[in-house]
Amino acid sequence: MKIYHNLSDFRGSNFAVVTVGTFDGLHIGHQMIIARMKEFARQNSGDIILVTFDPHPRQVLNSNKTEIKFISTQKRKIELLDRFGIDHMIVIPFTREFAATSSEDFIREYLVKKLRAKMLIVGYDHHFGKNREGNYEKLKSLGKAYGFEVEEIPAQFVDGIAVSSTKIRTALREGDVETANKMLGYEYSITGKVIEGNKIGRKIGFPTANIDVGDEYKLIAAGGVYACKVDIEGDTYFGMGNIGTRPTIGKHDFTTEVHIFDFNREIYGKEITIFFLNRIREEQKFENLDKLKEQLHSDKERVKRLFDDRT
Questions:
Q1: Under a CB-based contact definition with an 8 Å cutoff, are residues 254 and 220 in contact?
Q2: For residue 61, which phi and psi values (nearest 5 degrees)?
């Protein structure tokens, strides 16, 4: 996949199949859009072009920045888009000035004049342009005026609920990673560098890798104990993750850590990815470390049974 931060660097396409959006999470609805784009591109020897924005519009337009969190970091989004088969990713700098662009001006100046779009594919309830005044009906009208086709991909449903990035973020904030994973079509993950912790886990027989996410906008799932898979330099391990403030040991900082089963390598400074499969329980405070250790043994057995049931 080729990435462009300056649209003038894009050399054009004989048949441009285009979609536009922020694509937080690259969930199953987004994946259906990409699958349909690939069909059209294959039939017409065309290119699959995704237009997105950086920073995310909410980071520019929302006054309360502390509440803005995203399922995917930009790095993770790029990895997924490449995996799903996008040919060209065009990143438009999003500013307040750009936000004032009308839907028709955006279509005419970017999609028609610069990309020469032949096919535009969008998801259901797609809105764009100043004050989100552009919608599917507007796109159909503009398509007739400027000579491109438009197709809308219908909503995708999980357990009777229409999938959206907003609903996935809500599920993660509630600790419901199973629902989030169904909607994503893959496992929610957190990537970060392993940093030194207070080594309490090691003292009670449950050493953990504490990670520094390094992205203030990354959405971290609700606190609790989770069944996890862990990727370390391409190797996969099973483990038990914890998100929270570790109240039993009197800490108040929010951490993400994982106890990796049958693992004793030194990995400080290495980047690892934790994939979250199930939440076992909420975070809780215990009377003492012995009670915590007892619970962790129980949690570990439960996690191992979950993995046994999956195989």
A1: yes
A2: -95, -25
Question: 228: helix, coil or strand?
Answer: strand
The enclosing domain of 94 has a CATH number of: 3.40.50.620
CA distance 273 to 234: 10
Domain extent at residue 277? 188-310
Q: Is 179 within the bounds of a domain?
A: no
Distances (CA, A) of 146 to 63, 117, 142, 277: 36, 9, 6, 46
Each residue's pLDDT tens digit, 153-186: 999 999 999 999 999 999 999 999 999 999 999 9
Last residue of a domain, one of 127, 162, 197: 162
What's the half-sphere exposure (Cβ side, CA atoms, 13 Å) at 11? Answer: 2
In the chain, the amino acid numbered 11 is R
For residue 31, the model assigns a pLDDT of 98
